[in-house]
Amino acid sequence: MPVSAEYVARETASNLWRNRLMTIAAVLTVAVSLSLVGAALLLKQGATRAEAEWQRGTEVMVWMKPTASTNEIGAVGKQLGALPYVVHPCTFRNHMYDFFEAKRLVGSVWGEAGVTPKETPTSWRCTPVHPQDATAVIREFGGQPGVLVVSAPLTQIRTEQHVIEILQWVFLLVALVLLVSAAVLILNTIRMAIFARRREVSVMKLVGATNWFIRLPFMSEGLVQGLLGSGVAAAVVYGLHVILDRLGSSTSGSVLAQMRMTGWEVFVTDVIVVVIGVLIGTGGSAIAISRFLDV
Amino acid sequence: MIRFKNVTKTYKNGTVALRDVSIEIEKQEFVFLVGASGSGKTTLIRLLLREELPDSGRIWEAGRDIVHLPKWRVPYLRRNIGCVFQDFRLLPNKTVFENVAFALEVIGRPKHVVANQVPQVLELVGLAKKRDNLPSELSGGEQQRVAVARAFVNRPLILLADEPTGNLDPSTSQGIMQLLDRINRTGTTVVVATHDEVLVNWMRRRVIELDHGSVVRDQARGVYGIEGAPAATLGPAAAVSPAATLNPAATLNPAATLNPAAAVTAAGAPSGRVPAVAGARRARGQERG
To answer: ipTM of this model?
Structure first.
């Protein structure tokens, strides 16, 4: 016998209202638990974005001898342009640019050392597709005609990469642990709500209700609780994004600025949170009710 | 209608609830199951509801072997069985009407059938005016009437009652028993597990006595104890109550006739005063059969 949608809707509404304290408890449990899960997911995504931002800023510099000929500079540029593991195009910086950059970075020392713009080396600057590809560029161009030196912040690359990997794993682990504890907490809350109504279930069984007839209103209640709770959690996640975004925009160059995410990424996180909430609510109810159905 | 063949049931703690029980109950019969607490009455009812399975033996209900019934068919079996319990088992959040309607809703009866049948059966049990009350607003007797109405609303083949009068005063108990008798006259087989000596003796229906899980007596038009036994003496001196008059019109709405042929005054139906009970519980177990 198919269970009528009207029956399920009516029972769901009346049971949610009748057991409103339990409903509030379940919704709050879902909301708090999934807010934490969502925040962890958001921070993991932020770390991924920060890594991408940082990778974009990693440059390998092929320093040309100040005396390098135009042909030598051109040949190196042509070779760089053919490399599959660097982002194209590579940029050429002339004597003047490098001179003033050096002055900006090391101050007057550069000028006091008596180095003139003409004596300052020119350079090719490329962004490797992956930071670790910088090593290949160094190997390829070190000792080529006209090349003074090839440099890349290798130690920094390794350290930052390591830190970001750890951060991503930590956030992922935190999200998973929170997810499991949220699932257990939500399941327990739903179970308590159903335990309080086990007598009702036994009456339903006695008058010949099928398991699905009993299960569906409970699952529907779980669905509503999951939706409400995860809706609140999604709002909290969005709020956290707004706060991080504001902090990031006011501190350019900081980690928070690098972690700034697009609206789409936050939307995806919110969708994940809502889907988890709905699955835990519905599935949790189905699991919790099953032990009372075997009468 | 009901057949037990060599049924034995032992619980996990080692208690033998039923021991090689074989009984047959025909269609439209009214049977009392009597016996001391722990004699196996409730287990027998639970087996009929397929809440338990026997260790050995077979049980047929309405021609169906219920021991080998697949689990998913059990709800459909229960739709042919009405149940009444000592503790009423009403849904506290539903009104009288909703409680009764629930039994029809569960089996997918359309709305117009529910709207038609529920008032009829509430009329039968004399609760038409309390259809919008919650169980907590009713007396024990009224709650049991709702339970009976719920058990009967889909016209089951069998109605099982486990101590239906256990929580009720004598006069209310009579009303409930009268109701069950009336339902029996519509063709429903009624099995009542009870300790109520007064009612069993008054009704004079078939009595099956259980003792430590075995059938020790099966008596047509029987009494609670053994007829003639000194402890089961009935006498006017120990009248239960002057108010305990069994008059169908006094307790049931005369308009609530399920079937004109099912008049309570039919032959063999209880009428008049309840036989009085004298003294303590009878000595038991001399007659076996």
So the answer is: 0.70
